[in-house]
Specification:
Blueprint lengths: L1 H15 L34 H16 L4 H12 L7 E6 L7 E3 L3 E2 L6 H9 L2 E2 L13 E4 L4 E3 L3 H16 L4 H4 L2 E10 L16 E8 L4 E3 L2 E5 L2 E5 L9 E7 L5 E2 L2 E4 L1 E9 L13 H16 L10 E4 L16 H17 L1 E16 L2 E12 L5 E7 L14 E2 L3 H7 L4 E5 L9 E15 H9 L4 H10 L7 H12 L6 H18 L2 H10 L6 H15 L2 H14 L3 H15 L8 H5 L1 H5 L6 H23 L1 H6 L3 H16 L12 H18 L11 E3 L2 E3 L12 H12 L3 H12 L12 H22 L4 H19 L10 H9 L4 H12 L6 H17 L3 H20 L10 H13 L5 H10 L1 H7 L4 H15 L9 H17 L6 H9 L6 H10 L6 E4 L3 H11 L8 E6 L6 E6 L1 H23 L3 H8 L1 H11 L17 H12 L13
Parallel strand pairs: 16-20
Antiparallel strand pairs: 1-12, 2-3, 2-6, 4-5, 5-7, 7-15, 8-12, 8-15, 9-14, 10-11, 10-13, 16-22, 17-18, 17-22, 18-19, 21-22, 23-24, 25-27, 26-27
């Protein structure tokens, strides 16, 4: 056990050093994936040294030896040791010459090849669909299967052909065919439809099965690739490319799980076989490439680390085992060990940063004397693994003498000697002209090779240039008109490296190479650059300037077709339009055709209604430049007339008008085309105006089903706005279209009715469309004065929109009136003022501020005008407005008299003071109602305000209608509020006059007793002494008028007082008396004038009601300050049955 453990540890140590130790240098040491073993004899003469120590010495010695071992030799050792007889784990092959199997199926009968759609349908009808793929991991939907017992091949040659396929499979999988005698057993016949994947049988494989074989019979399909992976290597098999007329086979070791991709089109008919051994030999083992890949990765990484070293090879040319034609020199065309070497090497080489190429190595031997032979060594037809040609020929003269090279760059090292050992592929002998001269013998030796090249040296090896970037910079700096060989080599260099470029670098390469092609006038090179650098994908690569240069320098018709292809693939319509514009600008002066531009812009013409405004301008300009107005009428105008985008029509009409205005200076629109342009402009705007619906909201229409109507909920739609209306008005002004302005005016004034499902409400129509349109139009016309021919229709437009606004009362905000006044004021006359502006305003009830705004504006217009007729019309309009407002009772029958005061001020401002008498008359008629609805001092107090306003206007209280207003208001007030004087007034006044103490408590009690409120009062914690003092000096005079009571409270007692109801009523009457007298004094301070205003009878009734001798006699401001004589007088007159003799009422 210890010995076995030691041996295992040593072997693990060696495995860790796999990079440098080759465990066996003999061929076939790794057959069938068997692991290498290290045998160290314990009986050797150095058996005294511990086993692990001896292994370590071997590793150190081997590492030292490999430090100087050439890279080519290390790769050769790996190929010879591990790939000498090893096959791969898969096969893929196409058979062009195959017998017709005469396929016969139970049910469909004979099936012809290639499989037709009719036969495929018949197979489906007589087959069963598969439910799942292998082990339930694949969805087999769209795949039908038929049991082998129902499948027959009536052509006897099919059996021999099938045996040949089995031999090819065994050869590829490195299995000896004769000793093992494998047989081919059909498992299923499968038919795949579009969208299905290849689902194989789910049964357990039979005993002895070692491989799966899939044969695809001739049919038409796309897709269906198979991806196989094993030990870090993978391959993709695509049988759809040659499936129509050929039979395709693919096979792989049992145990692999392929990845099947779906069929994208057509159908595929598949025969699923398994290969089974017929002898008792062990089943072949699936070969493992993991160790080979690991070893190659170590060697290639070591090469990469010293890639620029002086003794490091720039490339390695490996001589393949087989010869291949030009057609088969591809990755899929290799066979045997060559295919396996490439299969293992391609992934690890790509990961390590190496390029792999396939080529023919050609050795030319030319001699006149056998002792003097002249050799030439070349690589020809260098191809990438996918078969694309990279380089036609490269000289390898330096490799003729490998001993003189610093690094070995070939396997084997002496290529010349190896090639000469074989038979020449061709021999030519040139006869001399004279018999005295010897002839020339030419021999060609050709072999196929695999080239391994680091990416750092790839450009230098292929093109002789250090890097594609250097080559591109060199090309950028050239200016030759014809290419040199060196410049062509530079072009090959940069184009062959396109797979390494980023998107930006690819575009830069395309621009430089196409510019060179234009300069050299090389159309083929231009197309090659477009193909290689993906220049057909759009104008962003070659740029519009590069395409225009190609049109100017290269064959025009061919480039025009190429440009159309580029523009078709260009997804950005703005770039397409701008490119055509730039091309037209440069091709026209050069005298070249621009007819192809209309083909390039066909899609833009169709979708012109959805273009941006900037795109409209460029498109119209390009069309005019390329073909004039006739081209516009042919390509653009019909699309605009059939569309329904008024904004687009307006923009393009304005564009045409600008070109028309510049006709004398611009070459884009000739003067003789004015008639065409004018007609197009009118048609565009007429179409826009007729299709424009200013107030419509797009919504779902109700669905009627039988007798039921399903009203759908309104769809979320954008509300109409004034933007389009303003654009159409501006376009009509700019194009001087009178009829268009008239049409727009009519549409804007046609406010929708309420309840229209497909239109906004009238309020929203005015708020969202009409008002903003009027505002913007006024502002626009201020900065862009129209021509005289448009003044009439524009005046009608502004007046019409103002009329709409004036008739919608709920939209009259303070900020809207300036717009209306500005719209109609510039061209206002007396007739429109009375019959238009004021007349439409009076059709709707308005609030006071709306009347104020209009009246103030009338005053402003009156001051600014010197026309007597116009000023007279303003006075009439003002009276008409006030009369309408008064008739509607909107400014007089209100909760506040401030509106009446505002009207009086307006009368003064405008200069129609005589209208105030009408206001007073209307108030007189409402006097009783106004007094009844308000407090006792509300309306009577405003009489003084009206008297003050009359004084400001130089009028007295006897102004017409004012005395009648005063008498009506005072009479109503007297009847409503005064009433008889309460009996408690005189005792109350006398008691208040008896209070003589001026201390703080007595003064506070006196103030409380001298007013109607508050009802109760409390003096908190004043103590017994102060309570007694207040009771003795103050409260004793009010035995029945006030109740008082001490209250126990801590820390000291308080005093509580409460007025009686009689006392409260007395105070309220006194307050009414004082407010009435003060209001009458504001009307006139002269007693005689006041008596004249009130009239004799009413004057006497007022004095009696107020218990006063004179109105203008002094009265107390507050009862607490009345004198003793006045209180006693009032008390005496209240106590007598007959009225006392009139005396003056004393006031403070």
């Amino acid at each position: 056990m210890p010995r076995q453990s030691t041996h295992t540890s040593a072997q693990q140590y060696l495995l860790l050093n796999d990079e440098t130790i080759n465990f066996s240098d003999t061929e076939g040491s790794a057959m069938n994936g068997a692991e290498d073993a290290v045998e160290v004899s314990s009986d050797s003469e150095d058996s005294r040294i511990p086993l692990f120590g001896r292994i370590e010495e071997m590793v150190v010695a081997r590492k030292t030896d490999l430090i100087t071992k050439p890279i080519a030799n290390r790769i050769r050792d790996i190929f010879n040791s591990y790939m000498s007889s090893r096959g791969t784990f898969w096969l893929e092959k196409t058979y062009e010459l195959m017998p017709n199997p005469a396929l016969r199926l139970e049910g469909p009968g004979r099936v012809g090849l290639p499989v037709s759609s009719r036969d495929a349908l018949a197979i489906k009808e007589h087959s069963k669909p598969m439910k799942s793929g292998p082990r339930g991991t694949v969805n087999a939907e769209g795949t039908w299967e038929m049991e082998p017992s129902r499948v027959a091949f009536d052509n006897p040659a099919w059996s021999g052909f099938l045996n040949g396929i089995v031999e090819d499979v065994c050869k590829a999988l490195a299995i000896e065919f004769s000793p093992n005698k494998p047989r081919c057993e059909l498992q299923k016949l499968l038919l795949q439809g579009e969208g299905s994947v290849l689902a194989l049988a789910n049964e357990k494989p039979p005993t002895g099965a070692f491989a799966t074989l899939i044969i695809t019979l001739p049919c038409t399909f796309n897709g269906g690739e198979v991806v196989l992976s094993h030990s870090g290597a993978s391959t993709r098999i695509d049988q759809s490319r040659n499936s129509l007329l050929n039979t395709c086979a693919m096979a792989w070791y049992e145990g692999l799980t392929p990845k099947f991709e779906p069929i994208t089109a057509g159908h595929r008919l598949v025969l699923h076989y398994r290969l089974i051994l017929t002898t008792k030999s062990p089943s072949p083992i699936l070969p493992s490439s993991s160790r080979i890949i690991a070893r190659l990765d170590v060697v290639l990484s070591s090469w990469k680390r010293s890639v620029f070293g002086p003794e490091t090879p720039r490339k390695i040319v490996y001589l393949l085992d087989h010869k291949y034609s030009r057609e088969t020199l591809t990755a899929n065309g290799l066979k045997g060990r060559d295919a396996y070497i490439l299969f293992v090497l391609k992934d690890v080489a790509k990961k390590a940063g190496f390029k792999l190429l396939l080529a023919h190595l050609e050795l030319f031997a030319q001699s006149e004397d056998p002792s003097d032979i002249e050799y030439t060594l070349e690589l020809s037809h260098l191809r990438a693994l996918d078969g694309n040609l990279v380089k036609d020929r490269i000289d390898l003269l330096d490799m003729l003498f490998p001993t003189e090279m610093k690094a070995i760059e070939s396997i084997p090292g002496d290529l010349k000697a190896v090639l000469e050992q074989g038979n020449p592929d061709s021999v030519e002998y040139d006869q001399p002209e004279s018999r005295s001269m010897g002839g020339t013998l030419c021999q060609l030796f050709r072999r196929s090779v695999l080239i391994i090249c680091p990416t750092e040296h790839y450009s230098l090896f292929i093109h002789g240039i250090a890097s594609p970037k250097d080559a591109l910079d060199t090309l950028r700096s050239t200016s030759s008109t014809s290419p040199t060989r060196q410049e062509l080599a530079l072009v090959d260099c940069v184009l062959s490296a396109q797979g390494e470029y980023s998107k930006e670098e690819l575009q830069d390469t395309l621009r430089v190479v196409t510019a060179c092609a234009c300069r050299w006038r090389d159309f083929d090179l231009w197309c090659r650059a477009m193909d290689t650098c993906q220049g057909w994908n759009g104008t962003n690569g070659v740029q519009p300037s590069g395409l225009v240069l190609a049109l100017l320098r290269l064959p025009f018709d061919s480039i025009a077709q190429s440009v159309l292809r580029v523009l078709t693939n260009e997804t950005n319509r703005t770039r397409r339009i701008h490119f055509c514009f730039a091309a037209c600008q440069q091709l026209k002066p050069a005298g070249l055709s621009t007819a192809w531009i209309f083909k390039a812009l066909k899609a833009e013409f169709k979708s012109i209604a959805s273009l941006h405004s900037s795109e409209h301008n460029v498109l119209v300009t390009t069309t005019l430049a390329a073909g004039g107005m006739r081209a516009f009428e042919k390509h653009i105008l019909p699309e605009l007339q059939t569309g329904s985008n008024p904004r687009c029509n307006a923009i393009i009409a304005c564009r045409l008008q600008r070109e028309l205005d510049r006709a004398d200076k611009s070459e884009l629109l000739l003067s003789e085309e004015h008639a065409h342009a004018k007609r197009a402009i009118n048609e565009l705007l007429s179409n826009a105006a007729s299709n424009w619906k200013p107030f419509v909201v797009e919504r779902e229409r109700p669905i009627t089903t039988g007798s039921m109507e399903l009203s759908l909920a309104p769809a979320a739609a954008q509300q109409p706005s004034s933007d389009l209306a303003i654009e159409l008005i501006k376009a009509a002004v700019e194009t001087k279209s009178v009829n268009i302005i008239e049409t727009l005016t009519q549409k804007l004034m046609a406010i929708p009715e309420r309840g229209d499902y497909f239109a906004v409400s009238p309020r929203d129509a005015v708020r969202l469309v009409v008002l903003p349109t009027l505002q913007e139009t006024v502002e626009y016309l201020k900065g862009n004065p129209p021509e005289e021919s448009l003044s009439g229709v524009l005046r009608q437009l502004k007046r019409g929109l103002s009329q709409v606004l004036l008739e919608y009362r709920d939209l009259h905000h303070r900020e809207h009136f300036p717009t209306i006044f500005e719209a109609v004021g510039a061209e206002l006359d007396a007739d429109y003022l009375q019959n238009g502006l004021v007349s439409h305003f009076n059709k709707t009830n308005h609030d006071l501020f709306q009347y104020e705004a209009l009246c103030r504006q009338l005053g402003i217009w009156k001051k600014e005008s010197s026309d007597s007729d116009f000023r007279e019309a303003i006075d009439k309009s003002f009276r008409q407005l006030l009369k309408t407002a008064a008739d509607s009772r909107k400014i007089l029958y209100v909760q506040s008299m401030n509106t009446v005061e505002s009207v009086l001020k307006l009368c003064a401002q405008v200069g129609v003071v005589d209208f105030c008498s009408d206001v007073f008359s209307r108030l007189t008629a409402q006097a009783e109602t106004l007094v009844a609805q308000r407090s006792h001092h509300f309306i009577i107090s405003h009489l003084g305000t009206f008297r003050l306003w009359l004084s400001e206007q130089g009028q007295g209280p006897l102004y017409p209608s004012f005395p009648e207003l005063v008498r009506a208001v005072v009479a109503a007030w007297r009847k409503k509020f005064i009433g008889p004087m309460p009996t408690g007034v005189t005792p109350l006044l006398n008691a208040i006059n008896e209070i003589t103490c001026a201390c703080q408590d007595c003064a506070e009690v006196k103030s409380y007793l001298g007013a109607a409120s508050p009802y109760e009062k409390r003096l908190d914690q004043i103590g017994p002494a102060r309570i007694n003092h207040v009771a003795e000096t103050t409260l004793r005079h009010f035995p029945r008028l006030v109740r008082s009571n001490p209250i126990r409270s801590k820390p000291r007692p308080s005093l509580w007082m409460r007025k009686s109801d009689e006392t409260i009523q007395s105070f309220l009457w006194l307050e009414k008396q004082n407010s009435g007298i003060r209001a009458l004094r504001r009307i006139s301070e002269d007693e005689a004038t006041l008596k004249q205003v009130l009239g004799g009878d009413e004057y006497q009734r007022v004095l009696i009601a107020l218990h006063a001798d004179f109105i203008n006699a002094p009265l107390p401001v507050a009862p607490v300050q009345q004198t003793k004589s006045s209180l006693s007088t009032a008390s005496t007159s209240a106590g007598n049955e007959r009225p006392a003799k009139r005396r003056k009422i004393a006031t403070a």
